[in-house]
């Protein structure tokens, strides 16, 4: 063209205008230098296009037919992912000591033990996991705060005894689950039902007994009766509950009358002590009387036997027996006297040291007399 290069030099890479001398306007004005635009963030459309290319294999700038086919492929994949996630919701795990109750459309279907299991996803089947071996507790009659802080609950604790007194009862129930399906389906709010059955059983047992034995000697019997009555009632309800222990924590008169009641109890204990002492003395006197009676009977029996023996000897030899009886009687009569008796039938007068015998017998005879 005639305006390629006015200076006659060769063009320099398109850096000059038709009049030469660099990028100029046709009228000789210098063009301002081109400014570099500031950097911008990533385009959202480009990111979406790259995401589709990565996951669905292809660009989005082609014709309408190929582009529509690629966009249709993402819906089956999404539906498949959702279906897999929905089926995976049926996987569940039960720990040791737990059981799971499986319901199918709300109706009981089966129970499973510890391990990893599967059930049809919701809404076809659902699983409810229950701890069956752990001990559950219910405290009735009081509300426990800290270890040393117990608040009385009069609505539960005050009970009427068989002798028309009022007793304040605090007790604790320990129980667990023996049939998980009955525990879940047969009773609404089973823990609250156990509390109500326990309170009712305790009131019935307390109403059959007197106050003093309840708070003194029959605490263990009360616990056993309440446990048996609770278990029979819960079995009738088919609750699936096993009662493990009934612990009677407090059994006393109400706080407002506890001082007067303690006086009555102490008076009763004093009366019992006096009765025991009287019974002891009575037993001692009776034993002594029985001993005296047995001794007298034995002595009388001995005397009778001796008389019978003497009588038998007398019948065999009357003269000898009479002489013997005479001599024994005289010996008993004169054994303490200073006398010397000689038999005149012998015909001889023997020499006897009478003075010496009297002197010897005098001290011996004085000793028994001194003791009387």
Description:
It is a single chain. This protein has helices at residues 44-56, 64-72, 74-88, 154-157, 180-185, 190-207, 211-215, 219-236, 258-316, 318-334, 354-371, and strands at 91-94, 98-104, 107-112, 115-118, 125-131, 136-140, 142-144, 150-152, 158-160, 166-177, 241-252. The protein is an alpha+beta fold. The chain folds into three domains: 88-131, no CATH class; 136-253, Band 7 domain (Tetrahydropterin Synthase, Chain A); 265-366, no CATH class. Strands 6, 9, 10 and 11 form a four-stranded antiparallel sheet that branches. Strands 3-2-5 form a three-stranded antiparallel sheet. The protein has a two-stranded antiparallel ribbon with strand order 1-4. α6 (190-207) crosses α8 (219-236) and α9 crosses α10 (318-334). The protein is rod-shaped and about 175 Å long.
Topology:
Elements (H helix, E strand, L loop, with lengths): L43 H13 L7 H9 L1 H15 L2 E4 L3 E7 L2 E6 L2 E4 L6 E7 L4 E5 L1 E3 L5 E3 L1 H4 E3 L5 E12 L2 H6 L4 H18 L3 H5 L3 H18 L4 E12 L5 H59 L1 H17 L19 H18 L1
Antiparallel strand pairs: 1-4, 2-3, 2-5, 6-10, 7-8, 9-10, 10-11
Helix pairs in contact: 6-8, 9-10
Features of the shown structure:
single chain; 372 residues; alpha+beta; Tetrahydropterin Synthase, Chain A; 3 domains; four-stranded antiparallel β-sheet; three-stranded antiparallel β-sheet; 11 helices; 49% helix; disordered N terminus
């Amino acid at each position: 063209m005639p305006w390629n290069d006015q200076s006659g030099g060769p063009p320099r890479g398109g850096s000059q205008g038709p009049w030469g001398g660099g990028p100029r306007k046709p009228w000789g004005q210098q063009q301002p230098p081109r400014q570099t635009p500031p950097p911008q963030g990533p385009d959202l459309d480009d990111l979406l296009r790259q995401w589709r290319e990565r996951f669905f294999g292809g660009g989005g700038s082609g014709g309408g037919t190929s582009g529509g086919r690629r966009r249709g492929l993402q819906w089956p994949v999404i539906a498949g992912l959702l279906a897999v996630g929905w089926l995976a919701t049926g996987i569940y795990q039960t720990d040791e000591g737990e059981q799971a109750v499986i319901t199918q459309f709300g109706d009981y279907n089966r129970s499973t033990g510890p391990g990893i299991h599967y059930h049809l996803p919701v809404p076809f089947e659902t699983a409810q996991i229950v701890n069956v071996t752990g001990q559950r507790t219910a405290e009735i009659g009081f509300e426990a705060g800290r270890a040393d802080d117990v608040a009385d609950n009069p609505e539960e604790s005050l009970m009427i005894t068989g002798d028309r007194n009022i007793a304040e009862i605090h007790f604790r129930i320990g129980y667990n689950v023996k049939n998980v399906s009955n525990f879940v389906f047969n009773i609404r709010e089973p823990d609250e039902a156990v509390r109500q059955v326990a309170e009712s059983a305790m009131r019935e047992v307390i109403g059959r007994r007197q106050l003093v034995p309840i708070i003194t000697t029959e605490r263990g019997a009360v616990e056993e009766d309440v446990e048996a009555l609770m278990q029979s009632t819960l079995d009738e309800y088919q609750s699936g509950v096993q009662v493990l222990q009934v612990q009677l924590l407090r059994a006393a008169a109400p706080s407002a009358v506890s001082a007067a009641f303690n006086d009555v109890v102490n008076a009763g204990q004093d009366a019992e002590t006096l009765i025991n002492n009287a019974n002891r003395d009575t037993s001692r006197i009776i034993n002594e009387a029985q001993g005296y009676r047995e001794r007298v009977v034995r002595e009388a029996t001995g005397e009778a036997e001796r008389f019978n023996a003497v009588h038998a000897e007398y019948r065999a030899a009357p003269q000898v027996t009479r002489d013997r009886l005479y001599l024994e009687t005289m010996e008993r009569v004169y054994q303490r006297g200073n006398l010397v008796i000689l038999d005149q039938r012998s015909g001889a007068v023997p020499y006897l040291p009478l003075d010496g015998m009297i002197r010897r017998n005098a001290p011996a005879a004085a000793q028994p007399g001194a003791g009387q």
